[in-house]
Each structure stands twice: as structure tokens, then as C-alpha cells.
Write a structure and sequence with these properties.
By secondary structure, the chain is α/β, with parallel strands linked by helices. It contains 3 helices and 9 strands, in the order E-H-E-H-E-E-E-H-E-E-E-E. The protein has one domain: Rossmann fold (3-Layer(aba) Sandwich).
């Protein structure tokens, strides 16, 4: 695997994150105490930037969910670790990417079963061409083609998370 072309520049990501923050802030009452749950590990850069753009007071929690392991194809099985008390809370799940949809579907099902006041999903990237289950984000940054991408928190075998832009991985 080698690093390919830049798909999304650091500047375009910054601008989109600011737009998403404004959109999310407008979707909730000003006095809402929002519980934002980041889906590790890939979301950490996106979540940190997005949280600074949301105007409501936020509480932050993280869970770990993975269906990739060290490869570039989703295994379909989603492993989830971590917990947050969401009962009666306005909850925003923050993820870096919706691909097959298995992770998003599993997380939405888990948290919906805990009776939150509201439950919404935010993803920086969406690859609808790879969808295997009916799910979509309430807030989406970019819709992209079927590329394996790295940077801005996304990795390939643990590498390239530190890139400020999002790049395509060439095989």
C-alpha cells in the first residue's frame, strides 16, 4: 500500500467541519446539553475539531467500534467496547466514515435501545456505493466514491492518521 493523491484538502475539511458545527448547533435548542459520543479510533481528529464548532454545552464520551481490523475491507462483524449513559439525553454519535453501514447500524441500535431523548449520527465521510445496510447520517460532511482513504484520523494498518488532508491509498 502506498499513499496516493489528495482527495480532500485540509482547508476544505476545516470549512466543512465549521459548516457541520453550525448545522448541528442549529438543530438543537441553545440550552440543550448535548452528549457527543465519538467512535474511536478514527474520529478523534474530526471529533475534536467538530466539538469546538458546536455552540451548545457538550459532554464528551468515546466508544470503540471496529469492523476493519488491519485490512482495507470491512469484515462485517462489528466489535464495540465502551459505554455511555444515554437514557433521556440528546445524543450525537460522531464517526469519521459510513461505509458498509454495519458499524453505524449497530451503534444506532445499541443506543436507541437505551431510550435517549434524541439520537443523531454525524459522519465526516459517506460512501453510499458501499452500503450493505439501510442507514444514513443525520449530518454528513462529504460523500465520496469507493476509495480507501487515510488522513485526518483515518488509517491503513495504523498509518497515516496524522495527515492534515484526506488522501486515497493506492494498492
Amino acid at each position: 500500500m502506498k499513499l496516493g493523491r489528495e482527495l480532500l484538502s485540509a482547508e476544505s475539511i476545516r470549512n466543512k467541519v465549521a459548516e457541520l458545527g453550525a448545522e448541528i448547533s442549529a438543530a438543537y435548542p441553545p440550552d440543550c446539553e448535548l452528549l457527543c459520543i465519538g467512535v474511536l479510533t478514527g474520529c478523534y481528529v474530526f471529533a475534536a475539531d467538530l466539538l469546538r464548532e458546536i455552540t451548545q454545552p457538550v459532554e464528551v464520551a468515546f466508544i470503540r467500534a471496529s469492523s476493519y481490523g488491519s485490512g482495507t475491507e470491512s469484515a462485517g462483524e462489528v466489535a464495540v467496547t465502551g459505554a455511555a449513559d444515554v437514557r433521556g439525553r440528546d445524543v450525537l454519535l460522531i464517526d469519521e466514515l459510513i461505509d458498509s453501514g454495519h458499524t453505524a447500524r449497530k451503534l444506532l441500535d445499541i443506543f436507541a435501545g437505551q431510550e435517549p431523548k434524541s439520537l443523531r449520527y454525524c459522519a465526516l465521510l459517506d460512501k453510499p456505493s458501499r452500503r450493505e445496510t439501510a442507514v444514513s447520517a443525520d449530518f454528513t460532511g462529504f460523500t465520496i466514491e469507493d476509495y480507501f482513504v487515510v488522513g485526518y484520523g483515518l488509517d491503513c494498518g495504523g498509518k497515516w492518521r496524522n495527515l492534515p488532508s484526506i488522501c486515497v491509498v493506492d494498492s
